[in-house]
Amino acid sequence: MVFMPGPRQAGKTTLAQWIAADFVNRLYVNWDIPEDRTRLIQSPTFFEALERHDASTPLVVFDEIHKYRDWKNYLKGAYDPFKDDFQFLVSGSGRLDIYQRGGDSLTGRYLQFHLWPFTLAELANVGRTIEDFRKDPLELRTEEIRRLEAMWAALGTTSGFPEPFLSGKEASYRRWSNAYSRQLIREDIRDLTNIKAIEDLETLYYLLPSKVGSPISIASLSNDLKVSYNTVRSWLSTFEQFFLIFSISPWTRKIVRAIQKERKIYLWDSPRIIDAAARFENKVALELFRAVTVWNDMGWGRFSLHFIKNRDQQETDFLIADETHPVLLIEAKFSETQPSTALLKFQSALNIPAVQLTNRPGGYRLSTNAGRRILIAPAWQWVSMLPW
């Protein structure tokens, strides 16, 4: 099977239907459609009765099936006896790899490919390979700079979700965003979890935009909301499962004395963040998180995204690692064009290239730190080169 998880309204249903259109024999099943739901429950192998038009293998699409309490067992029962006669595509707005851990394991039965909202790298469509990136992670796009800058600005005002982004209107984005988070929390999360304090959960989500850019203090949020530490931690995990947020962990190599244990969180809906510098960092985080997850999905490596912070409270925003080996340091500075002290220090310790991204238009420059390269450039020039 192929699993295609991703945030609600990222385009999963549209893409699944496009894929299905290439199959002569196909069946689309959506758990949110009552007729489909009833048919699946009453006759689990109903797809056997599919009317075929030729001898090609049919495709069965299960959309939003993670909302079915017994979805793992159902898919196992559908796949094991019918894997030679059907192909299965499963899409969902919950994390299919971890959501509802109960039930039989699906290990070895699926490949997973995430579908994210638009990022600049996808929109720019440079076509750079992962081999190109490994060879020179500091390579820049030097053509169509104004177009890239305009798209980067649009992602900061309308988000990368297709509906508001393609509208190109901030008013349309605000209407969409207000409805999106409210419906996701008050409908999907309420219906699929045991969380009863929905208003407190919603309040937590509204607090998070002001927390972007610094390691999240669960204790502080617990105090603000007057709920337990473990409750806040569980709610944040729920937000990740439903793709309202994502988080990155600290890099903990002894060489940089990193002891920081708290994670940093970012929003998929970055225009919700009022502070311009924090919103800029969030946009960079979206590009990097999309990159490493897609690279892993494609089997190009075992990449991970981190931040770095030491006992002296010096911090660099991002570090990309592959097979636990650090590859590249990235600092997001809204307007500063001088390499940060922390970036220089961590680069010296790790002996890897570094890039400092800014939100200022103009040229770029290359400098060195004891022979190690540092690129200082507008964010849209560099992130547009990330392989996708």
Distance from N terminus to C terminus (CA atoms, Å) equals 22 Å
Which structural class matches the secondary elements? alpha/beta
In helices, the fraction of residues equals 25-40%
Shape: globular
- Number-wise, the strands total 13
Count of the separate structural domains: 2
Radius of gyration: 22 Å
Strand order of the largest sheet: 7-6-8-9-10-11-13-12
Topology pattern, helix = H, strand = E: EHEHEHEEHHHHHHHHEEHEEEHEEEH
The overall average pLDDT, rounded, is 92
Poorly predicted runs are 255-260
Number of helices: 14
Strand content range: 15-25%
Polypeptide structure, described:
- The chain is α/β, with parallel strands linked by helices and 388 residues long.
- Helix content is 39%, strand content 19%.
- The strands form 2 sheets. Strands 7-6-8-9-10-11-13-12 form an 8-stranded mixed β-sheet, sandwiched between helices.
- Helix 10 crosses helix 11 (229-241).
- It starts with a strand and ends in a 5-residue tail after the last helix.
- Residues 255-260 have low confidence and may be disordered.
